[in-house]
Structures are given as C-alpha cells and as structure tokens.
C-alpha cells in the first residue's frame, strides 16, 4: 500500500471550520467508516472539539455502526450509550430529517464514505439532509473523502428519472466518478442554491487514485462492503439485486459471489467465460 499523504476533510475540520460556524450546535451524519487514518471515529473527535458543540447523531442505512446487516432492514432511533446523544434514524419511519430532529442544531455535518456507485444509498441520505436544511434554515458542512474506485472513469447509463427512487434520486451514471463533496456541490448548485453550504476538502487526493493508494485504512462503510475489491465490482454486480439471483450478501465475498439453486454452474460458467470479458475469469463453487 502506498503511503501517499491523503488528508481527508475530517482531519482538517478543526483547522478549516468556517468561522461563522464556530460555537455552533452540530448534528453529525455518520456510519462505521467515519474515521480518520488512526481509526478515530468522527463522533469521538467532535465530542472533544472546542470549536463546536455536538448535539445529535444521524445514521443512514445500516445504522451508525453497521448494526443492521441485512439489506433494506429499517431501524429506529435510540440514545448512544457512549455519548448520551440522541441517534436519529434516516432509514426508518423517515428517510429525511424531520424538523423536530433538527431543532437543537445549527449545522449538519456530513462525514460518510461513499463507494462510487449511484445506487449506494448514503449520497441520497445526504441529499435528503440538504432538503431538510434548506427547509429549516440550517447550514451544511461536508467533510470530503476519496472515491474508492477513482474519479477518472465514468461508466454506465445515466438514470432515467422516471425510475427515480432512494437508490437513485438524480440523473447520475452508475459509476459517477465523484467524491462525496463533489456530489454535494453538484446537488447544491443544481437543486439547493439557497443552502448555506461548505466543503472541507481533502489534500493529496488525485482523480486516478484507488483507495489502496491513499494510505488510508479501509473500514467497511456497510456490512456487505468488506474490501476494496467489493467496491470495484459493486457497480456492475449490484444489478443482480433486481433479479432472482443472489448477489452473495451475507457471504465472505459479497458481490464477487453470485448464484441460484436453479443454475447449472458448469454450463453457466462456460458460457460466461466464452464472452472473454477483460480482467475477469468466472469459476463455479
């Protein structure tokens, strides 16, 4: 692994926190991968901050610590045992922060690790937070993080908006090539121009970098995203989710393993390998 000195937005927040936000009451959107290079979680860092007051935590699909393993399992809010702070679910009875959830904060801080695919839901939770911030006159800060599969390749069709849903709310290609901060900037400029919006950028990240070149530790952003290899195949293999095939969730190699009880594996693999897809060899299990 490269020791490239990529510095993420979380590492720079204390130094680059906008002056007008100092002393603000903060709500933090987080998940398991909201950590710095020393694996310190943003919740712990913000609790210790002397520049802001952390008042609430918000969790997307799979929860703030990846508690909900299965896909599309909703969860409800609770009080965090470690901090005593309220944890609001944005994957339960609501996908969008309600005004009562935001009443004790001035600014929403977003610290989520995306994996570079349109149907990975965290970016759409971020957009719904943007909507709520506009409606309740709150500010937003995004702590930028790398696109793990690089920002140099754009692949797949752009979403037909007649099929818009929580796994695709805006016309992005399947592999969008943007960081969380760049997606936020696009959404703000196109749809939420009145939002008081700030990005804490990265240092050292280049568009052709894969995550293993950043010097940062890989932490699963969701329970079925165990490795960078998973993120690499996810934009294509997650398409199986809409079929009667299993995409391998719950196995040790989700999205690298797929199948169904009615498949003849030897015949299926023979036909797939005859396609001679570059960089891929299929084998039965």
Q: Could you walk me through the main structural features you see in this protein, from its secondary elements to its overall organization?
A:
With 285 residues, this protein is an alpha/beta fold. The chain has two domains: 9-218, 3-Layer(aba) Sandwich (Rossmann fold), CATH 3.40.50; 224-285, no CATH class. Helix content is 23%, strand content 13%. It contains seven helices and nine strands. It has helices at 9-16, 42-48, 99-102, 122-136, 180-191, 228-237, 265-273, and strands at residues 25-29, 53-59, 78-79, 86-89, 107-110, 139-143, 155-158, 173-175, 197-200. It has a seven-stranded mixed sheet, sandwiched between helices. Strands 7-8 form a two-stranded antiparallel sheet. β1 (25-29), α2 and β2 (53-59) form a beta-alpha-beta unit. The two termini are 30 Å apart. The mean pLDDT is 93.
């Amino acid at each position: 692994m490269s020791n490239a000195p990529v510095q993420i937005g979380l590492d720079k927040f204390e130094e680059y926190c906008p002056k007008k936000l100092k002393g603000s009451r903060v709500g933090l959107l987080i998940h398991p991968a909201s950590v710095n290079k020393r694996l310190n979680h943003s919740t712990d860092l913000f609790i210790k901050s002397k520049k802001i007051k952390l008042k609430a935590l918000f969790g997307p699909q799979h929860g703030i610590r990846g508690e909900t393993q299965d896909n599309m399992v909703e969860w409800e809010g609770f009080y965090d045992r470690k901090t005593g702070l309220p944890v609001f679910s944005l994957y339960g009875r609501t996908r969008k922060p309600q005004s009562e959830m935001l009443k004790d904060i001035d600014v929403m801080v977003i610290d989520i690790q995306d994996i570079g695919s349109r149907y990975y839901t965290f970016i759409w939770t971020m957009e719904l937070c943007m909507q709520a911030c506009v409606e309740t006159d709150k500010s937003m800060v995004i702590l930028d993080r790398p696109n793990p599969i690089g920002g140099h390749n754009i692949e797949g069709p752009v979403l037909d908006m007649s099929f818009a849903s929580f796994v695709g709310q805006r016309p992005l290609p399947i592999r969008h090539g943007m960081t969380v901060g760049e997606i936020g900037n696009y959404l703000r400029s196109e749809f939420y121009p009145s939002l008081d919006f700030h990005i804490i950028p990265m240092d050292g990240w280049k568009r052709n970098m894969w995550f293993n070149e950043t010097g940062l530790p890989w932490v699963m952003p969701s329970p079925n995203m165990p490795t960078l290899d998973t993120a690499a195949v996810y934009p294509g293999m997650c398409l199986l989710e809409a079929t009667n095939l299993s995409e391998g969730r719950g196995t040790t190699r989700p999205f690298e393993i797929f199948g169904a009880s009615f498949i003849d594996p030897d015949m299926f693999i023979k036909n797939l390998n005859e396609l001679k897809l570059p960089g891929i060899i299929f084998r039965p299990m």
